[in-house]
Amino acid sequence: MPLNIVVGTQWGDEGKGRVVDLLARQASIVARFNGGDNAGHTVTVGQQTFKLHLLPSGMIHPHTMGVIGNGVVVNPTKLLDEIEMLKEAGIQVTPERLRLSYAAHIITPGHIALDEAMEKARGEGKIGTTMRGIGPAYTDKVARSGLRMESMLSPEEYAEAFKEHLEEVNWRLVNQYQASPLDPEKAAGLAFDQARRLASYIGDVSQLLHLALKNGEYILAEGAQGALLDLDHGTYPFVTSSSPTAPSALLGLGLGVNCVEQVVGVTKSFQTRVGAGSFPTEISGEPALRLRGTGEKPWDEYGTTTGRPRRVGWLDLVLLRFTARVNGYTELALTKLDVLTGIDPLQICVAYRDRRTNEELQELPLGPGKLMDYAPVYEQLPGWREDITGARRWEDLPPQARSYILRIEELVQVPVSLVSVGPERSQIVEIE
Ligand code: IMP
After folding, report:
1. Predicted confidence (pLDDT) per residue in 371-416, tens digit
2. Which long-range contacts (CB under 8 A, 24 or more apart) does 389-397 make?
3. pTM of this prediction?
4. Residue 81 a catalytic site member
5. Is 41 a residue of the active site?
């Protein structure tokens, strides 16, 4: 009964889409379990680059079925746009190929307006959200006042509930945030139409997945964001409002704990972050420009969802060790190793120094919430100059690149099974 969970080990944008694309070849079902269209997964196939935000990125493979689990928050407008985008690229998305959990919550224009108004009100302390309405939609879920996908099964009732929800949001927008109200009548009309179009995709995905596992099928759970953005285990309050860690795959898909075979932690070969919050190994200047790229190439370090330039820095192994603990990785997939080519020496953060006591720490005493209290302790490793984009086997990598990988394995105590050395599907080194 194999369930393979792929998660991000950092602050998102680790290149999970690449790894999922590779693993989805053997999977019959690919499933999203957390977050919403705040995610952005880029997959390059030949000349075509797909940027998916909500649909599981493994759906690029025509043999797979896509599932959106109860842990996801769904913006119906974005979902319908993405279905259309894939259809135009020749990839069919029908109710036979895509199933949506009846229990997934809906993101409305009200949630998006609240996200904007709340960020504005936070002023200097803003989180730097993606403005996709994620926080307000999960807030409604926890407050037990949200709209679930199952309500779309009756478009009239859904449109009515939608209107009432927007009226409540308008009250908050106007009175609490002095923001402009939305037009509930107009939005309810659109909601009615969307419910009619999406109703046939809605069902009990937990049951579907359970049966598939019973039949021995291979299911791939695709995490969005990364462990350091986890609501409980991340750099709170600069986090997202869902749990991108592996245990959440079970909760967010309606599965029990006895089906997990692999947990693949996708790790970029360096560190990036988009949005606010502390980042101990952040760098600027020339090496930062090299890591970030210019933005010309789709895989340069600019947000897939927002287009914002990402903050960049050296790989932080204290944080990677921490996320290994809360995720239980069985293996790591290291992405973008080719980007490090030509940087010499390389640095990795192996410990932290407490700024107040000067004490050197291997582990964070209270998790990653207050990272500004610590300074990184670096170890230098030799870089390499050879072009590694043609490497396909372990032996093809220069000795310095192999040492870099081996040191990560040693410090995290998790084997590295995959290394990506370029944006193309084939540019992967699989390590036995
Ligand atoms: P939200 O998820 O839009 O509420 O944003 C909360 C924080 O998570 C912000 O710092 C975002 O930049 C970050 N974030 C959300 N989704 C992603 C992602 O897919 N990649 C990287 N950062 C993300």
Report:
1. 999 999 999 999 999 999 999 999 999 999 999 999 999 999 999 9
2. 389/338, 389/421, 389/422, 389/427, 390/421, 391/421, 391/429, 392/426, 392/428, 392/429, 393/429, 394/429, 394/431, 394/432, 396/429, 397/429
3. 0.96
4. no
5. yes
